[in-house]
Design a protein that fits this description.
heterodimer, A: four-stranded antiparallel β-sheet, 11 strands, B: mainly beta, six-stranded mixed β-sheet, five-stranded antiparallel β-sheet
Chain lengths: 114, 109
């Protein structure tokens, strides 16, 4: 039972490069989320999806794009990486968005932008 | 604005009890989660409170007072493996999670 799987686990990019972070869940969850976690700050929501084919902006969406072509996958793209996007990125999923459903997290992607 | 406050770091002794506090200010309120996050790992779900009172789960308990905008996580019989960060997250009126920065708990033998 894999749960939420993120790839890659680590990546170093140069400023201006692009890349895609992959997230896959095998729990048949409707909702999926992308967060970034920076030292001294709480998790910040980048984008989220309430179902296949849907996406919505979170708290810090600028510089990122997402797609949810299949229910089990949620992709996060960095169009032109900037040093300010150096962070740990977590993908999460939940059965639905009602309050009592906890989010299940992947192991994170540690991204450094030089 | 919306805000979650929790202490940055706490230290406790193996075998003892520790209480980690969390205060929240949100636009509406639909419950509160506590998560545990070991260094370099993913957050994992510990507890959920939506009604006032105490929820007990083994060595861990979580308390909520909606009128005070306050919650705490109580850890009993501390073990070295409890060394981790503990994240408080409140659910606002749009069912978005507002996350605290986390409390790093250090357990000493």
């Amino acid at each position: 039972n894999a749960g939420v799987t993120q790839t890659p686990k680590f990546r170093v990019l140069k400023t201006g490069q692009s890349m895609t972070l992959l997230c896959a869940q095998d729990m048949n969850h409707e909702y999926m989320y992308w967060y970034r976690q920076d030292p001294g700050m709480g998790l910040r929501l980048i984008h989220y999806s309430v179902g296949e084919g849907t996406t919505a902006k979170g708290e810090v969406p600028d510089g990122y794009n997402v797609s949810r072509l299949k229910k089990q996958n949620f992709l996060l793209g960095l169009e032109s990486a900037a040093p300010s996007q150096t962070s740990v990125y977590f993908c999460a999923s939940s059965f639905h968005g009602d309050g009592n459903q906890p989010q299940h997290f992947g192991d994170g992607t540690r991204l450094s932008i030089l | 604005g919306q805000n979650i406050d929790q202490p940055t770091e706490m230290t406790a002794t193996e075998g003892a009890i520790v209480q980690i506090n969390c205060t929240y200010q949100t636009s509406g309120f639909n419950g509160l989660f506590w998560y545990q996050q070991h260094a370099g790992e993913a957050p994992t779900f510990l507890s959920y409170n939506v009604l006032d009172g105490l929820e007990e789960k083994g060595r861990f308990s979580s308390f909520l007072s909606r009128s005070k905008g306050y919650s705490y996580l109580l850890l009993k019989e501390l073990q070295m493996k409890d060394s981790a960060s503990y994240l408080c997250a409140a659910i606002d009126s749009n069912y978005q999670l507002i996350w605290g920065a986390g409390t790093k708990l250090i357990i000493k033998p």
